[in-house]
């Protein structure tokens, strides 16, 4: 059985008065076509990432809202309980934090996208990100 994982490109703009510029997050356009049981690696590159930046991965199924998968912050990955680490994982590689999905299932067919933001002011090394960010998304393509 073949199915699709679709990636989208978008920009994240800072809207606060403390914003000193724009950060760009990019995903390659097009579909990823794999079969059940394989491993998917979905790319997400960014123009800048500092030790305080927070990167988020989301999954959006047809006719549904985006669901938070995981957060990369301070060199650590924090998974949503719905997306267990043994199947959904990510790691920093140069200017990229690719999402790896092990042992693909048909239910993994969806649109996946990433977002980059500054951490909340209350976030510290001892605090786990909660999967919410103030971002504006501009999609370059969409599912029909």
TrEMBL record:
Ig-like domain mapped to chain residues: 23-124
Question: What keywords tag this UniProt record?
Answer: Adaptive immunity, Immunity, Immunoglobulin domain, Receptor, Signal, T cell receptor
Its signal peptide is 1-19
Q: Which Gene3D superfamilies match?
A: Immunoglobulins
Biological process, per Gene Ontology: adaptive immune response
Matching entries from Pfam families are given as:
V-set
Q: Please give the GO cellular component terms listed in this UniProt entry.
A: T cell receptor complex
Q: Looking at the record's lineage, which domain of life comes first?
A: Eukaryota
**Protein name, per record:** Ig-like domain-containing protein
């Amino acid at each position: 059985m073949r199915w699709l994982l679709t990636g989208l490109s978008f920009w994240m703009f800072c809207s606060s008065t403390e914003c000193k510029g724009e950060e760009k997050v990019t995903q390659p356009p097009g579909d990823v076509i794999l079969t059940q049981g394989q491993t998917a690696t979905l790319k997400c590159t960014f123009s800048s990432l500092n030790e305080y930046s927070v990167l988020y991965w989301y999954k959006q199924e047809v006719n549904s809202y985006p669901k938070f998968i995981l957060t990369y912050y301070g060199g650590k990955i924090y998974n949503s309980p719905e997306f267990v680490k043994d199947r959904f994982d990510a790691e920093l590689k140069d200017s990229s934090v690719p999402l790896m999905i092990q042992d693909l299932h048909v239910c993994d067919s969806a649109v996946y996208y990433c977002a980059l933001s500054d951490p909340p002011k209350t976030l510290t090394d001892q605090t786990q990100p909660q999967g919410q960010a103030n971002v504006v998304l501009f999609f370059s393509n969409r599912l029909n």
